[in-house]
Amino acid sequence: MVEERFLLAEERIRGILEELQEKDESGQIPMPEAFKAYFLKMAEFLLLMTDTCRYVAEGKIYLASLEELKAHNKALYEDILPENYETSYGNPTYCVKELGEEYGRLCCFLYAELRSLIVFAYEKKKEDMVIRMELFLEIYGSVLCALAETGKLPAVEEVKEIIYFFVSDYMRDATEKKIKAMVCPTEDFALRILMESDLDSPEYLYYFGEYITENELKTWEHLKGQKEETISLMADTYTEGYRIGFEVGNKDITKKKTVNIRYSLGFERMMKKAVENFAKIGLKPTIYRAAASILQGKGLARIGYYGAIPNKQYDYDHKDDQALFLNKRLMQVKLESFKEAFEMYKEEAAVFGGPAVVEVFGESPAALTEKKEALHLSEEQQKISVEYASAAGDIQNRYIKGEERSFTIIAFPTPEIGEDFAEIFDEVIKINTLDYNLYQTIQQTMIDTLDKGKYVIVKGMGNNKTNLKIMLHPLTDAKKQTNFENCVADVNIPVGEVFTSPLLSGTQGTLHVTKVFLNELEYRDLSLEIKDGMITAYSCGNFKAEAENLKYIKDNLLFHHETLPMGEFAIGTNTTAYVTGKKFGIEDKLPILIAEKTGPHFAFGDTCYSHAEDVAVFNPDGKEIIARDNECSLLRKENPAKAYFNCHTDITIPYDELGEISVVCADEEVITLIEEGRFLLPGCEELNRALDGMKE
At what angle do helices 126-150 and 2-21 cross, to 10 degrees? Predict the structure, then answer.
């Protein structure tokens, strides 16, 4: 049936192409020229997709030369590349200019949804292709019928309704596939490429259907040139970090059977070794692609495996595409679909261990523009979005219990970081494999001092205006309890932080950073005002208009919440990573995973123990970490919707902007740990060695 629908849809699209290219007796077909051009472009693209599907299904892709693969890959993505984006229908500004405000937004959405056919063609998923081809045909037919009957375009609401029912009708199927891909190792499209391809030749990179640039090719080339023991060291650090995460979290990894691997293309040699390592501890991998469709939950962040990002502005322009149809009814459909899917795969979900993530960094920052022509969530839709995220998080935690799962994250640079890529890569390997025991000992010295305190004072220096008071949980038995976790190389690689979930009541002041990158977005002169642990005001200097700055922060840092709590306070101790950033001038390109270890950082949203607060966690010295809750997370037993925020964003003050970190004890004694970016506490002098080397 799917094959028949596919062929019928393809035949009709070929017919449309001919219709649009022909002229009637008056010299024009009865359609406005602007719409004719749009539908012609879409029909041509869809036929490219059906041809691509056959290209893959018939095995021609595996016989193609590298140059042929490159040319085909470029043809798939060239329309949204920055150099072509000004006249792309994926650009809401251009689409609105050509087709009018209301139809422009509709057609821009349709354009973006049809582009998901690229990945479905490579995965030979004809059903996913055909439903979107039929969506195109239904909208085209609606326009053609209205023009024939009335001489006018159909009402915008009529076309919106077509899109709404497309989303509503196929939401359950898409959600079921998404959950299956996460927890079931039978979905092995990427795994087969990873394990069965010749990784000594770069052609395999083009088998995924992702956009491939010199970045991915040079990453592949660099890893190919590494010794086998280096690849093993990278993979071992990654997989051992995952295993240790269960151990230090007091969780039983033997109950788990699957691990979700997420990474950026080019690292296949490392990932193949990682798959073998995970097998030795009884875990099979699930490797799913980052969402390409609105039905899969496509957003600004890529979660899964992915290739190059063709155009960050395109992604930013389409981050709120669900604004076209999101309402309470559809939210309920999504939640019902989510629960049904987890119920269908509840056995697989119960033995799912959590994600093991390889992040990349070094890409050139993009100067993103907020476009009025793009779709934006209304205030009501923002509330619905927040409500959905909270409810979906609660459902997922019922099936993948937070107290039983873990994760790990490690990061490496990409060639785009600059001409020192090879040297930086080797430095990052060194950073990721620093002496676990040395840092554990130093950090324990810091924790013993911090545990004497009622609160901590953090102040900036120079242009940094930070002035914060962070309240600590009272310890009822100092011999058995601690506030801070001694974090080395486990869930967050590399080593280098002690962290806690502070008390919200009494935590107050100003957090300020002159420049920071959060979730791939730049914030200049970011300032947050805190009262009783909650954000009460915020500002940044990205845009001239204050309203734009406020919207930018609310959309991308607060994730549409009115406020967020301080879920974490930490002190980063990895001075080696800090010096590497300074040495190569890449401080602004370090991922938060490494950047958070280069100074104190503050996370807003959920605590580090989200959904696992009742699991007892102990430091290597045997003391239990009791600061696993705050006043928000404690609401989880009464009202989970108010307990969790489903986000956790770290903001770091680098050492060179750090004036002071001091702990104030019960007897009002003040002990200074860091002053003007240097560690003063006895037993922590080793951390200054890297800083001293930077001055020499």
Answer: 40
Q: Is residue 442 part of a domain?
A: no
Residue type for position 42:
M
Alpha-carbon distance of 502 to 470, in angstroms, equals 7
Please check whether residue 424 is in contact with residue 584, taking contact to mean a CB–CB distance below 8 angstroms: yes
Is the CB of residue 621 less than 8 Å from the CB of residue 391?
A: no
Quick one: pLDDT at residue 402? 86
* Residues forming beta bridges with residue 675, ordered by sequence position: 660, 678
Helices and strands (DSSP H and E) totals, the chain:
23, 19
Tens-digit pLDDT profile for residues 622-671 = 999 999 999 999 998 888 778 999 899 999 998 999 999 999 998 999 99
- Residues 6+ positions from 167 with CB-CB distance below 8 Å: 294, 295, 325, 330
Q: In degrees, to the nearest 5, what angle opens at C-alpha 216 toward C-alphas 214 and 221?
A: 90
On whether the CB atoms of residues 405 and 353 are closer than 8 A, the answer is yes
What is the side-by-side order of every strand in the sheet holding 408-413? 284-286, 258-262, 352-361, 408-413
H/E run at residue 284: strand 284-286
Tell me, yes or no, whether 212 and 92 share the same domain: no
Mind listing the pLDDT tens digit for each residue in 346-375?
A: 999 999 999 999 999 988 777 789 899 999
Q: In this predicted model, what pLDDT tens digit does every residue of 128-172 receive, in sequence order? A: 999 999 999 999 999 999 999 999 999 999 999 999 999 999 999
Residue 631 is classified by DSSP as: T
Residue 586 and residue 464 in one domain: yes
Inside any domain, residue 565: yes
Q: Per the structure, how many domains does the chain have?
A: 3
Q: State how far the alpha carbon of 285 is from the alpha carbons of 47, 196, 259, in Å.
A: 34, 15, 5
Domain boundary residue, one of 361, 376, 399: 399
Under the banding of pLDDT at 50, 70 and 90, the label for residue 588 is confident
Residue 68 lies in a domain: yes
